[in-house]
């Protein structure tokens, strides 16, 4: 079941869902708007030009209120908001249609697990032929919350728990866990 604005407001009030900072205008009929934070990370250039999923990937991270995303460029960014989801709630990250229409693709693998705590890292790609100026604080997407039929047996406690800022891939840790 997708949560309504009424339920989201009730959960924020009774603190069963945490979103900070959040303003009432961000609460939409069936979602919460997310705003762009001020950290951006790009993969460092490598002499081989090949990213291996078996090795740690090195990122250059900057803090800035404005970032110019060049045509064909990919950057990680963070939400301004920090989230704490209860063990019976999941969320989907969706980009804003008005930004998609100018070629800005926004994703975070689309899914936030029950029990997740942290800022959400967004993957941004400029599919346009023009550069796109990104500004911290701008609405870039929305979170749609869905209630689970029961509390998760194994709520999220993974490698991104508690993340702040644009957090790079930790896929290499999957191999170490085996």
From TrEMBL:
<feature type="active site" description="Proton donor/acceptor">
    <location>
        <position position="123"/>
    </location>
</feature>
<dbReference type="GO" id="GO:0033973">
    <property type="term" value="F:dCTP deaminase (dUMP-forming) activity"/>
</dbReference>
<keyword id="KW-0547">Nucleotide-binding</keyword>
<feature type="site" description="Important for bifunctional activity">
    <location>
        <begin position="110"/>
        <end position="111"/>
    </location>
</feature>
<protein>
    <recommendedName>
        <fullName>dCTP deaminase, dUMP-forming</fullName>
        <ecNumber>3.5.4.30</ecNumber>
    </recommendedName>
</protein>
<feature type="binding site">
    <location>
        <begin position="96"/>
        <end position="101"/>
    </location>
    <ligand>
        <name>dCTP</name>
    </ligand>
</feature>
<dbReference type="InterPro" id="IPR011962">
    <property type="entry name" value="dCTP_deaminase"/>
</dbReference>
<dbReference type="GO" id="GO:0000166">
    <property type="term" value="F:nucleotide binding"/>
</dbReference>
<feature type="binding site">
    <location>
        <position position="142"/>
    </location>
    <ligand>
        <name>dCTP</name>
    </ligand>
</feature>
<feature type="binding site">
    <location>
        <begin position="121"/>
        <end position="123"/>
    </location>
    <ligand>
        <name>dCTP</name>
    </ligand>
</feature>
<feature type="binding site">
    <location>
        <position position="159"/>
    </location>
    <ligand>
        <name>dCTP</name>
    </ligand>
</feature>
<dbReference type="GO" id="GO:0008829">
    <property type="term" value="F:dCTP deaminase activity"/>
</dbReference>
<dbReference type="GO" id="GO:0006226">
    <property type="term" value="P:dUMP biosynthetic process"/>
</dbReference>
<dbReference type="InterPro" id="IPR036157">
    <property type="entry name" value="dUTPase-like_sf"/>
</dbReference>
<dbReference type="Pfam" id="PF22769">
    <property type="entry name" value="DCD"/>
</dbReference>
<dbReference type="GO" id="GO:0006229">
    <property type="term" value="P:dUTP biosynthetic process"/>
</dbReference>
<keyword id="KW-0546">Nucleotide metabolism</keyword>
<comment type="function">
    <text>Bifunctional enzyme that catalyzes both the deamination of dCTP to dUTP and the hydrolysis of dUTP to dUMP without releasing the toxic dUTP intermediate.</text>
</comment>
<feature type="binding site">
    <location>
        <position position="113"/>
    </location>
    <ligand>
        <name>dCTP</name>
    </ligand>
</feature>
<comment type="pathway">
    <text>Pyrimidine metabolism; dUMP biosynthesis; dUMP from dCTP: step 1/1.</text>
</comment>
<dbReference type="InterPro" id="IPR033704">
    <property type="entry name" value="dUTPase_trimeric"/>
</dbReference>
<feature type="binding site">
    <location>
        <position position="156"/>
    </location>
    <ligand>
        <name>dCTP</name>
    </ligand>
</feature>
<keyword id="KW-0378">Hydrolase</keyword>
<comment type="subunit">
    <text>Homotrimer.</text>
</comment>
<feature type="binding site">
    <location>
        <position position="163"/>
    </location>
    <ligand>
        <name>dCTP</name>
    </ligand>
</feature>
<comment type="similarity">
    <text>Belongs to the dCTP deaminase family.</text>
</comment>
């Amino acid at each position: 079941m997708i949560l309504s604005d009424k339920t989201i407001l009730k959960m924020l009030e009774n603190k069963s869902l945490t979103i900070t900072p959040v303003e009432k205008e961000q609460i939409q009929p069936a979602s919460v708007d997310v705003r762009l934070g001020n950290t951006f990370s790009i993969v460092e250039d490598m002499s081989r030009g090949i990213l291996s999923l078996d090795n740690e990937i090195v990122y250059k991270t900057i803090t800035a209120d404005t970032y110019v995303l060049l045509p064909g460029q990919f950057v990680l960014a963070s939400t301004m908001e920090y989230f704490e989801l209860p063990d019976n709630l999941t969320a989907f990250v969706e980009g804003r249609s008005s930004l998609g229409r100018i070629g800005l693709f926004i994703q975070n693998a689309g899914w936030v697990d029950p029990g997740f705590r942290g800022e959400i890292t967004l993957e941004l790609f400029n599919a346009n032929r023009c550069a796109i100026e990104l500004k911290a604080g701008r609405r870039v997407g929305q979170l749609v919350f869905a209630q689970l039929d029961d509390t998760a047996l194994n709520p999220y406690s993974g490698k991104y728990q508690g993340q702040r800022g644009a957090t790079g891939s930790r896929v290499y840790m999957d191999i170490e866990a085996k």
